[in-house]
Amino acid sequence: MMHWKHWRPAAALFMTMATGTAVHAQDAPETLFRDVRVFDGQSDRLSPPTNVAVKGNVIMAIGPAAKAGAGTRVIEGRGRTLMPGLIDVHVHLTFGALDMAKLMSPDLTPQAAEAAAADQARAMLLRGFTAVRDMGGPVFGLKAGIDSGKYQGPRIWPSGAVISQTSGHGDFRLPTERSRRFFGKPSRAEEFGATFIADGRDEVLAATRENLRFGASQIKLMAGGGSSSDYDPIDVTQYLPEELSAAVAAAEDWGTYVAVHAYTSRAVRRALDAGVKSIEHGQLLDEATIKLIADRGAWLSLQNLPPPLPNDPPDRVAKKMAVREGSDHAWSWAKKYHVKLAWGTDFLFRPEENREQNAYILRLKQWFTPAEILRMVTHDNAQLLALSGERAPYKGKLGVVEAGALADLILVNGDPLANIDLIGDPDRNFAVVMKDGVIYRADGVK
């Protein structure tokens, strides 16, 4: 078994080429994107035709004066769009790589789960997602594998095991599994690194600190009921104020923050009062609570959830439909009150859905302009990642195309500001995907 110290981000990151050969980012050839129009992550228009020079893993220069030197790899843009890599701030790389039957199988091993997640991580990178925030699950080994060059995948901001009260949204016990607190045996999900069932201030503190010890960049707590679970109604509020405050204090001592799973106004208001900085979901919030999120300067990390499965039990279907129906109000009010908005997918237990990751960005068209959408899935999502402060696993600026920023870039066949639908079909429309200065996708370019 890998020693826990090896799960932490390595001081020098190794990147993997499409051939599977690990290389140092700083050893990659210099790259010049010639004759490109730049979406910088913030503007509502593209730049005039220009050049962008990359050295190592950093954008070194932008402008017509940026030239190719000896040994520079030149990519002819021919007027295409160069933009920041996409960012998804609510993924579950392990839970999203396996269906429920496989996750519940007694034969599932950590190694098999990591291998499945690694396959999905590679596909995610090739779709243009160069950074993600993993919002709960056993992911430290996968992250270490990507950072070392064993696997290909996006940069990962890991939360580690979700932290849940008994009977909470992260209480994944089977009906046959009894409480660790009373009967002494951890559940299989706890042993797997999927969850901490923690009750009371002391246990919440210990669970928070345990995740931080293993390299969590932020902490994820379950503060309310969920739509994908059987034992907690979606209307319930989870964790007492003092329990939430304990997690916030422990995270802040490490220079980072707490994000909570919550849908209802009661749960979100309690979390905000405790100092929580990121609300995950929130589709059932009333207008006043969304305004309160803006007033407190917290983030609202929203999603457009997929429809229920045909074989979902009726109570789960009802919960999912309520969440889906609340999405319009949540997005509209968040825009109205200028809430710090972030976007993610939150795919769970349905690996086939992962292929729709880019298409789900296009669902934002009913509320936002193409420029607003592109800004959200690049610059704005990067600002939420930056909230991890010193616990951020990668140092440097993401979500923008500017001198000094990290070289996470996509070359798009066309103008996504004029036709946002280009983002929804990466196989056809992404000519180059670069992460940390290394090219992982190069379709039709030399």
Describe this structure in words.
The chain is of the alpha/beta class. It has two domains: 14-85 and 397-442, Roll (Urease, subunit C, domain 1), CATH 2.30.40.10; 87-391, TIM Barrel, CATH 3.20.20.140. Helix content is 30%, strand content 20%. It contains 13 helices and 20 strands. A hairpin with a 5-residue loop joins strand 1 and strand 2.
Concise description?
The chain is 30% helix and 20% strand. It has 446 residues and is α/β, with parallel strands linked by helices. The strands form 5 sheets. Strands 3, 4, 5, 6, 7, 18, 19 and 20 form an 8-stranded mixed β-sheet that branches. The protein has a 5-stranded parallel β-sheet with strand order 13-14-15-16-17. A 3-stranded parallel β-sheet has the order 8-9-10.
Keywords for this structure?
TIM Barrel; EC 3.5.2.7; 20 strands; disordered N terminus; signal; Metal_Hydrolase; Urease, subunit C, domain 1; hydrolase
What is the percent of helical residues?
25-40%
Point out poorly predicted stretches. Answer: 1-23
Radius of gyration: 21 Å
Shape: globular
State the CATH topology of the largest domain.
TIM Barrel
The count of β-strands is 20
Structural category is alpha/beta
The CATH superfamily title of the largest domain: Metal-dependent hydrolases
Residues in β-strands, percent: 15-25%
GO molecular function, one term: imidazolonepropionase activity
Domain Amidohydrolase-related: 81-438
EC number: 3.5.2.7
Keywords: Hydrolase, Signal
